[in-house]
Design brief:
Blueprint (H helix, E strand, L loop, with lengths): L4 E4 L6 H12 L3 E3 H9 L3 H8 L1 H18 L3 E3 L8 H7 L4 E5 L2 H8 L13 H19 L2 E4 L5 H12 L2
Parallel strand pairs: 1-3, 1-4, 2-3, 4-5
This protein binds adenosine-5'-triphosphate, (3R,4S,5R)-3,4,5-trihydroxycyclohex-1-ENE-1-carboxylic acid and magnesium ion.
Length: 168
């Protein structure tokens, strides 16, 4: 059984916040592949990056996404960089994929207070965020069936819109 919706987008776009609220509105379970990876590794994502390296994290992420796509019928949020994998993008064909988009300024503002994102933990998080957006925007759009700008809508407003758009 396929997920009711797969949620993708950059860090801070609201994949977890909106994904959880969308699942509640649809009356289905929520799952986040970042949580699956942490549970399987037994350590936080920041430790996986520093101890095992990003390639090991990306390999674990490919496996986690493939497993969750095959077995989760609810709302599934992917990690921000999951779409970097060509194999993952191919697996997403035929799924309902929601791209939550966020601007550079708002994405930096939303992620600025957290140290839990290893890719943005360097000395210039704004430059890193810009680099991520530039490289990934075409990839999010390649897999998306619905795109929503989240800059000036609350999570509740976004969920209301999505529930309308996802109705069969
Ligand atoms: N539409 C929104 N408007 C304002 N703030 C928001 C919105 N969506 C999410 N936020 C806030 O932005 C922050 C990041 O949200 P969230 O953790 O859901 O993003 P994410 O896409 O899951 O990020 P990550 O890729 O790091 O997992 C949180 O503090 C959340 O409350
Ligand atoms: O944007 C990214 O590459 C990441 C986003 C997070 O969801 C985590 O998957 C991890 O921190 C990497
Ligand atoms: Mg999240």
């Amino acid at each position: 059984m396929k997920p009711a919706a797969v949620v993708v987008g950059p860090p801070g776009a609201g994949k977890t916040t909106v994904g959880e609220a969308l699942a509640a509105a649809l009356g289905v379970a929520f799952r986040d592949t970042d949580d699956d990876i942490v549970a399987a590794a037994g350590k936080p994502i920041s430790d996986i990056f520093t101890q095992d390296g990003e390639p090991a994290f990306r390999a674990a992420e490919e496996r986690a996404v493939a497993t969750a796509l095959a077995e989760h019928p609810g709302v599934l949020s992917l990690g921000g960089g999951a779409i970097l994998s060509r194999a993952t993008r191919a697996l997403l064909a035929g799924h309902t994929v929601v791209f939550l988009n966020v601007s550079l300024a708002e994405g930096v503002r939303r992620t600025g207070l957290s140290t839990a994102r290893p890719l943005l933990a360097g000395i210039n998080p704004r430059a890193k965020f810009k680099e991520l957006l530039d490289a990934r925007l075409p990839l999010y759009r390649e897999v998306a069936t619905v795109e929503v700008s989240t800059d000036s809508s609350s999570p509740e407003e976004i969920v209301t819109r999505l529930v309308g758009e996802l109705r069969p």
